[in-house]
Amino acid sequence: MRESEADVRRAGPLTYRGKAVPDTTTDQRLLDQRGPAEWVHTDPWRVLRIQSEFVEGFGLLSEVGSAVSVFGSARIKPGNPYYALGETIGGKLVEAGYTVITGGGPGMMEAANKGAKQAGGTSIGLGIELPFEQSLNDYIDMGVTFRYFFVRKTMFVKYSQAFVVLPGGFGTLDELFEAITLVQTGKVTKFPVVLVGTEFWGGMFDWIRKTLLVEGLVSPNDPELMYLTDDPDDVIETIRKAHVDMARRQFEAGRVEEEGERIHDAERADP
Ligand SMILES: CC(C)=CCNc1ncnc2c1ncn2[C@@H]1O[C@H](COP(=O)(O)O)[C@@H](O)[C@H]1O
């Protein structure tokens, strides 16, 4: 016997029959009612917003090729020699075959994006909502603005194969030490973290060796997790060599197909 329309209701994957058929449809309940609004300020709702940030971030970045994240001060202005250094490094990363990812803001982020864009590469900005008005810099081809710092950080780590850290303040230090901690604890397979500016970072390196190491608060090899240089070509060469070595180790460990591809990519980037 055929069911009459009144006897059955299909709501997406759900089927209701007979007296179980609801009085209203899902759309009616969605569109007709407007209840109290406090729930948008609750954690369960935030979880959905957080989830949507991951979806947008993964969606934007998943097809990006080999990429390097460049961190550095939001406050350094064009005209500062560090800004020019950031531009040069952004450009050279592109010439070496990498997409450049930054925090999308002003200062050193803008410098690296500018260098990347002017070299004809892909320039990405992962911005962050801040209490004061601020938009993504003008040199970004693709960008997302995140609400949550921790979601944004996941994107930097997941979609880049190296970090370049230019002079900066607390935000830059936060990004540097997050990266180093992930490498130190084996949460990411060892990837190069290159600091640029021997004079700027030298004091921190000394303190790590003379205090952290001497007090036994880091392992003897931990300071080697960071490489320090002033030379943009050395930045690129260090990253490239690390990628070739890494791909070769993975290849030798038997993960042939994919890793062969990566060796190829890294070698293709040979300047
Ligand atoms: C003028 C000003 C303060 C703007 C702030 N606008 C920002 N926009 C995007 N990312 C940022 C911003 N401030 C800090 N960050 C993040 O923290 C780092 C810079 O922080 P800082 O200036 O070193 O501590 C950047 O690598 C970036 O990922």
From TrEMBL:
**InterPro entries, sorted:** LOG, LOG_fam, LOG_family_nucleotidases
Which Gene Ontology cellular-component terms appear in the entry? cytosol
One annotated GO biological process: cytokinin biosynthetic process
User: In the Enzyme Commission scheme, what number(s) does this protein have?
Assistant: 3.2.2.n1
Keyword terms of this UniProt record: Cytokinin biosynthesis, Hydrolase
Listed Basic and acidic residues bias regions = 1-10
Annotated stretches, region: Disordered: 1-26
What this protein catalyses is: 9-ribosyl-trans-zeatin 5'-phosphate + H2O = trans-zeatin + D-ribose 5-phosphate; N(6)-(dimethylallyl)adenosine 5'-phosphate + H2O = N(6)-dimethylallyladenine + D-ribose 5-phosphate
A GO molecular-function term, please? Answer: cytokinin riboside 5'-monophosphate phosphoribohydrolase activity
Q: Does the keyword Hydrolase apply?
A: yes
Keyword Membrane: yes or no?
no
Q: Which family does it belong to?
A: Belongs to the LOG family.
The record's listing under PANTHER family reads: CYTOKININ RIBOSIDE 5'-MONOPHOSPHATE PHOSPHORIBOHYDROLASE
Q: Which NCBIfam families match?
A: Rossman fold protein, TIGR00730 family (TIGR00730)
UniProt name for this protein:
Cytokinin riboside 5'-monophosphate phosphoribohydrolase
Query: Species name for this entry?
Result: Murinocardiopsis flavida
